[in-house]
Structures are given as structure tokens and as C-alpha cells.
Amino acid sequence: MRAMEGWDSLLLPALKKGTRTGRPAGYEDCSSRASLPRVGKGRARTSFPQLPGDSCRPEPLGLPGFSLSWALLTSSFFSYVPWNYHEPEPGVYNFNGSRDLFAFLKEATLANLLVILRPGPYICAEWEMGGLPAWLLRKPKIHLRTSDPDFLAAVDSWFKVLLPRIYPWLYHNGGNIISIQVENEYGSYRACDVSYMRHLAGLFRALLGDRILLFTTDGPEGLKCGSLQGLYTTVDFGPADNMTKIFGLLRKYEPRGPLVNSEYYTGWLDYWGQNHSTRSIPAVTKGLEKMLKLGASVNMYMFHGGTNFGYWNGADEKGRFLPITTSYDYDAPISEAGDPTPKLFAIRNVISKFQEVPLGPLPPPSPKMTLGPLNLHLDGNLLDFLDFLCPQGPIHSVLPMTFEAVNQVHGYMLYRTYLPHTVSEPTQLWVPNNGVHDRAYVMVDGVFQGVLERNMKHNLFLMGKIGATLDVLLENMGRLSFGSNSSDFKGLLQPPILGQTILTQWLMFPLKVDNLVKGWFPIQPLKHSHPQTPSGPTFYSTTFPILNSGGDTFLFLPGWTKGQVWINGFNLGRYWTKRGPQQTLYVPRPLLFPRGAHNRITLLELENVPPQPQIQFLDRPILNSTKHRTYVYSLSSASEPMELSGH
Q1: Among 23, 296, 385, 390, which is disulfide-ready with 27 (CB 3.0 to 4.6 Å)?
Q2: Cβ of 579: how many Cβ atoms within 10 Å?
Q3: Is the domain of 449 the same as that of 301?
Q4: Where is the active site (predicted)?
């Protein structure tokens, strides 16, 4: 996820010094006050899963963003808690390393920042499956985000672990959590299940008590189904929307208390294959100033960009499947690398009109490093390492099984069968009903044939002799995190058809690619098995020293097509150079071994390798391989961006 995704928030009035009440002082009646005190100190949101984690970051967790937030006189931040990050399997909980929520809360305390927590169970955040664990889909008929007994049982079990651990951190208990969001933009979900929302509200109250402020967040069209009596109602929208109209609508659901825009969009997310999104500084600052003049409370989303490391990116479905890029820079005031941008300075100037800001300069950008070009060496075809990638052996089934059915959560799974007859002329291989979720890399006897892709490319033509091995490597590109949020099963959802023949008798190999990369030693004996034509899924690697203390950097992969990258065993995430817009991957300094130690970089290239298999490390990101595009939020569709114009 993101190195640190954050919002600056000016949400709720300042707490009275020395008081520890269930709500910030004056919360219920501050809507009548437009004076400086109701602006208070403001808040910034940060998501700890989007940092590399304390195992590889020796400095305090999140310190750069916290420092910049304090420089803007912010007093708190929002943070999501992704359920699937902490309960990878039912009843198995992980709060260690980069998953240590409580170390993160402690860092916020040391920075004198309060916390507004968003534990879900659904969080969106462009995060894999919106934070819901994929193991829920092992019950194929489950109805997510509803009062389905199977879903509620899992939610109850999780919150009975999480919320008691949060309880000591509540503000009235001496902690720094001042409010908690229930669900997330539920009004945008098709179910509109009031019983589900009531169940969540009751569960939160039972486990956290009556003194903590609970609230909801929705777009203007979602207020009807997303709000609930007893939970404070907030709204979200962007700079181009009619805030007077939206706040007027909000007043119908929340007659008293502050007007709160809990997600004021400073930028926008990127999808693979679309243009990089930005929002102009004048538009963002104009909207911010107007809201503050109205006496409204504001959270900026995003305040700090970040990264969808590993396999944690989500996806949208807007007519077709749209996976989200590895970078979550978001054109935010603080960049993906934690550096201040001109937008940050402009926002600081706006805030200074309403309250004093700390004197002195903002923290400088972090040191950056350049290196290369470096030559990568071919380690071999993915199929050469199948015994290491799937040491437990394959699973047999007459028809192909989904990732969820074989307990494969992320990454890749290989499907194998054998041609039932000789195919002497190019013959169509296709998967009906858009049954490839999400990309399929097809090989016959180890020779790469091409790609099938969800919503995009449904067929290709191949030849082969009877008994030839047909391998289909399936990539999970990230489960839906917004939109219908229907159960997004991965893999071959339908059996492929060759000509008129339905292919059966499949072997499924759930691949543990990360385990192989972390224990790279098995590959060395197999280096003699290089494919003659390096296309299709292949591994490349090299080692390199860094002679000085190093710095943050950006991995540039010119000429490569699509794949996954690891540095010293850490999964940086996906690259898709050919499709864009993102061309570089952010590499935080703590991932690299400095002062002459050898670093290893490993690529799994899924399609085609450049003639010169090289990489470079740059001192700046390249996030826009085409042109910028500006999005705004339309009041008529609170959750669908509308393209205005390129600039």
C-alpha cells in the first residue's frame, strides 16, 4: 500500500487542554461558531500498512509525514485498519512489523497527533478487496457487507479481537483516538442493508462504550443509505463540486454540529492504461479556503501519497475491470516519497489565513539516489522452478478451480492440462463469460503463445500435438475495492475452450513466488536451463552495491513489459511499463543495504524482455507516460469521476 497515505484534516474543534471527554469539547454546538477556535489544529490521515514497516525502516515509523503535518499545525490524522492485513487466515492475527498498528499510534502520540480511526470492516482505500479478507470468498454464496449470517459472524469475530485492543487508546482512556468511523461510504454500495449498519453500530458500542464518537462517511448521493441515527454523518466531495448544495443536503441528515467534508480530494488515483490524474493547486486551495470561510471542517484526501506495495492494490469496475497502479502518489500535497510539493506550500498559505502556523521552513525532501544502468541476468523460465514454486504439488480437478477454492489469496497460480488432440492449424483458445480473472499467460510446451485478459482480450490462436502441455499462468491483479464490490473471484472461472472442445482434467499449482525469491539459492543450480527465446514468464536478477549511505530512489524499467519486482526479498509491487502511466517504482532507502553491501533485485517478467535487459535507479519518479488528466467529482454521481480536460 502506500509509503504513507495521509490527509490533512481540519476536522472538529480543538480539544480543551487538560480535558478527557468522550467527544472533543464543543463538538455538538460548534456549527454556530465560525471563529478561529473551531478550526482548531486540524488533522492528517496516515495509513501505516503503506509503509515498508519497522523491520526495514530504522527511523520512527511515519516520521516524515508526521513532521510535515505538524508544520501545518495539524492535530490529528485519519488511518484505515485493513482487516485482511491483520487476519490473513481465519483466526490467525498479525500485529507485528509493518502490521503493528499500536506502534503506529505510539508514533502519533510522540508527534502530538490525535487519531481518527477507520477500521471498516470495509475501508475502500483502493486496497485489495477494500480491506475485506479474500478467505471470506471460500464460501462462494456469501453476501459481503450485508447482514448475511456468515459475513456477520466473521466481522464479529474480527472486531472482538481488534476493538478491545483499541479501547485503551481511546481519548477518554488517556489515548489519542478521538473518533472512529463505522464502515465506509456504505451508501455507495448496492445492498443498502440498514440491519447490517445497525449491527455494526451496536457492536462498536458494545466493545468501545458510549463515550467515543462514532461517525459515517458518504458521498452526497450515498447519505440516504450510509447514514444511521446515532452515528455522526459526514460527507465527501472534491474541489469542483457545489459545496453549498452538498452541505445543505448534509444538514438534512445532521441538523446540528459541524459541517464535515471527511474526504476532500486533493488529487486522484491512477489506473493502469489510463492517464495520470492531477488536480490543480488553484482548484484545491480555492475549495479549501471556501470551506473554511463557511466554518466547515475539512480532511484532505490524500494529504500524503503512498505505495501499493506487493499485491495490495485494489481495483474498480466501471464498465470494465480497472486495476489500480502500484503508485498511490495521488498528486497529494506530500508526495509518495514523503517530500513536500508546491501544493503543500499553497495549502499552508490558506491555513495561515485562519490560524497561526509554526514558524520556520518545512522539512526538506529526503536525499535521493541514482544508480545504473544495471544489466540483469536471465535466471530461467518460471516453469523451470515449478517444484520450488509449488513444493506441495498440484491439485487435480476435472474443471479449473478458483484461487479462493484452493486457498491462494494473492499473486499467481498455474493451470495445466494437455491437448486432447492434435491442433495442426491455428485454432481459437477462449474462455467464455469473461472467465479470465484477471490476466492469463498461455504457453504450449513451454513456448509463450500470448495473453488473455479480463474485459479486454478473450481469445488467442494456437497449435500443438496431442498430449502437448498447455500451461495457463493466472495473475490476480487485485480484487475490487469499490463499485459493486461483488465477490471478485480470481483464476479461471470457466473452463477454456479450444475450437469446439471444452478442456478438462486440470492441475492447479498455487505458486509461492515470494517464498522462492526470499530463498533465491534454489535457482542457482538451474541456471543452465535458460529458454532459447526469453519471452513469457521468466525470472531476471542481479546484485549491486551501494557505496555510500544511499537514499530513496525510483526504479526505472525501460523496455520491460509487465511483471513484479523484489528488492532484497521485499515485494515492491507490479510494473506495467508498456501500458503505463506509471514508469517507475518507489524504493524507500531502508530497503537497500548501504556502504558496499550487495543488494539483490529480482524481476518476474511476464511477457516480453527488452533487447537490453537493463534497469536504472532515478532521483525522481515518472508517473505519467502519456498526459495529465484532471478529474472532478460530479454531484450527480458522488463516486464516479468525470473527466473535464487535459492540461
Answers
A1: 23
A2: 15
A3: no
A4: 185 (proton donor), 263 (nucleophile)
Domain enclosing residue 611, as ranges = 371-380+514-618
End-to-end CA distance of the chain: 28
Q: What is the pLDDT of residue 521?
A: 52
In the set 87, 185, 605, 607, the catalytic residue is: 185
Residue 14 has what pLDDT? 30
Residues 441, 527: one domain? no
Q: What is the pLDDT of residue 54?
A: 35
C-alpha distance from residue 430 to each of 322, 401, 467, 472, 613 (Å): 21, 17, 19, 12, 32
Residue 76's pLDDT is what?
75
pLDDT beneath 50, residues of the chain: 1-46, 51-63, 525, 627-647
Domains of the chain: total: 3
**Cβ–Cβ < 8 Å for 44, 94:** no
The residues that bridge with 428 in the sheet, in sequence order, are 461
Q: How far apart are CA 98 and CA 100, in angstroms?
A: 6
358 located within any domain? no
User: Residue 562, class by beta-carbon neighbours within 10 Å (0-12 exposed, 13-18 middle, 19+ buried)?
Assistant: buried
Mark 36-70 as b/e (b = at least 16 C-beta within 10 Å).
eebbbbbbbbbbbbbbbbbebbeeebbbbbbebbb
Tell me, yes or no, if 263 is annotated catalytic. yes
CATH no. for residue 431?
2.60.120.260
What is the per-residue DSSP string for 268-297?
A: ---BTTSPPEE--HHHHHHHHHHHHHTT-E
Give which of 61, 74, 72, 169 is closest to 113, Cα–Cα.
74
Active-site residue identified among 5, 87, 263, 605: 263
Residues of the chain by 3-state class (helix, strand, coil), percent to 5: 25, 30, 45
| Residue 89: active-site member | no
DSSP string, 232-257: EEEEEE-TTS-HHHHHHHHHHH--SS
Q: Are residues 207 and 82 in the same domain?
A: yes
Q: Does residue 465 sit within a domain?
A: yes
Q: What per-residue confidence (pLDDT) applies to 57?
A: 31
